[in-house]
Amino acid sequence: MQEEKKNIVTFGLENCYYAKAVIAADGTMTYETPKQYPGATELNLEVNGDLIEFEADNIIYYSSPDNKGYTGTFTAALVPDDFLVDILGEEIDDEDGVQTERSNSSSSPFALLFQFEGDAKAVRHVLYNCSANRPGIGSATGKNVNTTELSFNATPRPNDKAVKTKTKESTKPTVYDNWFTAVYEKVAEA
């Protein structure tokens, strides 16, 4: 049996998708079919949570990480109108053909799916419980292409505390190939 070749570096960002989440009364999240978020240029995730330390006997007696997920920024060419409506609660007036942002709009949690290239195999990721802030807007004279930055949090899912899942070299082909068709959930064996 041949050993799987492992990544030693990652680079590139592609295949970005979002899936609107619905939270049931018991905290269980289900997801709509993922929609593509095209034009991604950069994704940065910073750890959210501190290292908890307790001192006793003149030493650090107990130490534990406090995993509150991630705080991130996602930069792309444009925020898709579907995302602005589905996730940030903007409203479309089909009669006049306009889209309106309201100060009292309700946002929706979502899963963020994406892929990092690697030297051996692309790694696919999902962040299960994201919430986004409104993106800024701006432009400048000339033909330089602008990007839009979206700030967001990826926090533990209420029902099972899952923050993220990623593929590995050993991921089954059926799981890997279908990663962007539905938000990955472990299927219990019968």
UniProtKB/TrEMBL annotation:
Gene: pi239
Protein name in UniProt: Phage tail protein
Ranges of compositional bias, category Basic and acidic residues: 158-168
Database matches in NCBIfam families: maj_tail_phi13 (TIGR01603)
Renumbered residue ranges of the record's region Disordered: 149-168
